[in-house]
Design a protein that fits this description.
alpha+beta; three-stranded antiparallel β-sheet; 14 helices
Length: 315
């Protein structure tokens, strides 16, 4: 009975100065998720209004776990809602691996449970919604790569600019891993390159500087070839092991049997999500998903001793 009162406290839109909006609405959405499981219709009505002034993506998840069929049906109805905030809730709230969100094991195991929602939304003209659809697809691709690649291939048959954008961003993890089906979706042939030259400008780099890679690539085919060059950096961890992270690089078109030169820069700036450790790190170029030779470089941190800094050397 309190939900209608909470709804009256909301702003009429995100730009309104009167009423609650933004993070002030978060406690309200959480209250609905905790107290509303026994009042499904009232809860859905409340979340529908709340998500238009602050996302209800976390609050909808308990309903998907405990009332899966009813909630999925409600989300299907919302795929046609006039508000892009509500349509985004459909795809974002049902993501199998929503960051910081409650895990939905059934959706992780069975991607076909949420795929009809994405099918209904794939032509959405809102970039806000498209980004969410792409992130949802990317979640599924981490556990069901072949299945996702197959579904996206069927989307290509009714290609539109919106669908093309979603396919490209939704398959980004598969592209980084060199998945053959995902590469084909991007018009990338999975081939072996010959006579490739890879050079690091510097082998001794300080945190805050840029890792620069020079590539010389030859197209081995008697036809034009799209070349996707990504970079995998193996960051040193505290235990002495390395953890890989793939960075998007460059895409070029080479004429038959032509050579091409590329420069790829990877800034090693300070970020809150990564701690750098001084020592030997590694870098590997991926050409159309194929890993090339791994090259080592020394990274210097602020905490590194003066003796370990040495003199910058070139190769």
């Amino acid at each position: 009975k309190s939900f209608p009162i909470l709804e009256e406290a909301l702003a009429r839109g995100q730009d309104e100065e009167i009423g609650l909006s933004g993070f002030l609405v978060w406690p309200l959405t959480h209250y609905v998720s905790v107290r509303g499981l026994q009042s499904f219709e009232l809860s859905m009505q409340a979340l529908h209004k709340m998500t238009q002034v602050f996302s209800a993506e976390f609050a909808i998840r308990p309903f998907l776990i405990h009332e899966e069929e009813k909630t999925l049906h409600q989300l299907h109805l919302w795929t046609r809602d006039e508000s892009d905030h509500v349509r985004r809730l459909v795809s974002e709230g049902s993501r199998p691996l929503l960051p910081w969100g409650q895990r939905i094991p059934a959706f992780v195991r069975e991607p076909e449970k949420t795929w009809p929602l994405l099918e209904a939304l794939k032509g959405d003209t809102s970039k806000y919604v498209q980004k969410s659809i792409a992130n949802h697809i990317n979640d599924h691709s981490k556990n069901h790569p072949d299945w996702v690649a197959g579904r996206l291939k069927s989307w290509r048959k009714t290609s539109t600019p919106e669908v093309d954008w979603i396919i490209r961003h939704g398959s980004r993890t598969l592209i980084k891993k060199g998945h053959r089906g995902a590469l084909e979706l991007q018009g990338i042939k999975n081939i072996s390159f010959q006579k490739t030259k890879i050079r690091l400008r510097e082998r001794l780099i300080r945190v805050g500087e840029t890792l620069t890679i020079d590539l010389e690539i030859r197209n081995p085919l008697n036809e034009s070839l799209a070349v996707l060059a990504d970079v995998e950096v193996f960051f040193l961890k505290a235990n002495g092991q390395t953890s890989p992270k793939v960075f998007k690089g460059r895409k070029v078109i080479l004429e038959p049997f032509a050579n091409g030169a590329l420069e790829i820069k990877i800034p090693l700036r300070k970020v809150t999500t990564r701690k750098y450790y001084a020592g030997t790190h590694g870098v590997c170029v991926l050409l159309n998903g194929q890993r090339q030779k791994k090259i080592g470089f020394e990274l210097i941190t602020e905490s590194a001793s003066p003796a370990s800094r040495g003199t910058r050397r070139r190769r």
